């Protein structure tokens, strides 16, 4: 009997009160049971909605991934693989994609200045001009590169390896002293080995107006102060001469040495091409660049 239908009688007050309390408790439990059932129902509904939303989101994510991959493929085809593929005659920085993967494009300085009537399309990988960048760096820095392509920089040995491991490339070295004299060395082949090979230097025949101070280094491994791969026994050429290079025992050319603002200095730690202009003279500017041969 519901508690609101109970009639209180004299002498039965305790029993009636117990009945009222029990009825009220039963009513409360009935309400709680109904609420529980309602909650379970709505929880199931929310789970179904959640599953549906997650399914839609998952489908959208998969669709977006496929679309992004397609965009990457198209953009990868649009980016040039090297400076020889750039449609311009202006020397400036460009993004290139030699890896064929949009996630790994990088910026390079493409040179089209027609130095010594040799044409353009050169990819610059080393540039010295004002001493603003310290070239005494460790192995990791030389592997990945440092500096800014708009100024002094080193592009990176790993990039050089990737870009020169196939096909045929030529190397051009530009040199300038503080008196305004300039010269060049051109090599008809250029290749850099892998890191396992310690980025071994390989190049071909020489022509140019600078004396050939580079052939001495042909076939040598790259060395930094923290990774000594030279052929000079216990001596660490990179550490001794404040730079990093394809040292042999130790060098005839070393374009990654310490920069001296006035050229002349008393030791061999500078930016050197031994026969230009003279011994113990540190150059004002150097540029090393390569391009694929047609």
Automatic annotation (TrEMBL):
<keyword id="KW-1015">Disulfide bond</keyword>
<dbReference type="InterPro" id="IPR014716">
    <property type="entry name" value="Fibrinogen_a/b/g_C_1"/>
</dbReference>
<dbReference type="InterPro" id="IPR002181">
    <property type="entry name" value="Fibrinogen_a/b/g_C_dom"/>
</dbReference>
<dbReference type="InterPro" id="IPR020837">
    <property type="entry name" value="Fibrinogen_CS"/>
</dbReference>
<feature type="domain" description="Fibrinogen C-terminal">
    <location>
        <begin position="74"/>
        <end position="294"/>
    </location>
</feature>
<protein>
    <submittedName>
        <fullName>AGAP012000-PA-like protein</fullName>
    </submittedName>
</protein>
<dbReference type="GO" id="GO:0005615">
    <property type="term" value="C:extracellular space"/>
</dbReference>
<dbReference type="Pfam" id="PF00147">
    <property type="entry name" value="Fibrinogen_C"/>
</dbReference>
<dbReference type="InterPro" id="IPR036056">
    <property type="entry name" value="Fibrinogen-like_C"/>
</dbReference>
<dbReference type="InterPro" id="IPR050373">
    <property type="entry name" value="Fibrinogen_C-term_domain"/>
</dbReference>
């Amino acid at each position: 009997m519901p508690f609101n239908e109970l009639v209180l009688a004299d002498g039965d007050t305790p029993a009636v009160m117990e009945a009222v309390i029990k009825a009220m408790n039963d009513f409360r439990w009935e309400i709680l049971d109904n609420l529980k059932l309602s909650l379970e129902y709505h929880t199931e509904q929310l789970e179904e909605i959640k599953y549906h939303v997650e399914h839609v989101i998952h489908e959208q994510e998969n669709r977006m991934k496929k679309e992004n991959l397609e965009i990457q493929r198209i953009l990868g085809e649009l980016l040039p693989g090297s400076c020889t593929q750039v449609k311009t005659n202006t020397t400036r920085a460009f993004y290139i994609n030699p890896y064929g993967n949009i996630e790994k494009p990088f910026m390079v300085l493409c040179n089209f200045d027609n130095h010594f009537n040799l044409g353009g399309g050169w990819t610059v990988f080393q540039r010295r001009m004002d001493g603003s960048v310290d070239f005494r760096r460790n192995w990791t820095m030389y592997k990945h590169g440092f500096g800014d392509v708009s100024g002094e920089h080193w592009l990176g040995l790993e990039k050089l390896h990737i870009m020169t491991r196939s096909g045929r490339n030529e190397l051009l070295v530009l040199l300038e002293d503080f008196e305004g004299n300039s010269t060049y060395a051109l090599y008809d082949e250029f290749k850099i080995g892998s890191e396992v090979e310690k980025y071994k230097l390989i190049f071909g025949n020489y022509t140019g107006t600078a004396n050939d101070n580079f052939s001495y280094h042909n076939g040598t491994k790259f060395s930094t102060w923290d990774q000594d791969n030279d052929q000079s026994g216990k001596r660490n050429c990179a550490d001794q001469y404040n730079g990093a290079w394809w040292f042999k025992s130790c060098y005839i050319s070393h374009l990654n040495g310490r920069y001296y603002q006035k050229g002349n200095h008393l030791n061999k730690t500078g930016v050197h091409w031994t026969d230009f202009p003279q011994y113990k003279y540190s150059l004002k500017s150097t540029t090393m660049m390569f391009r694929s041969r047609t």
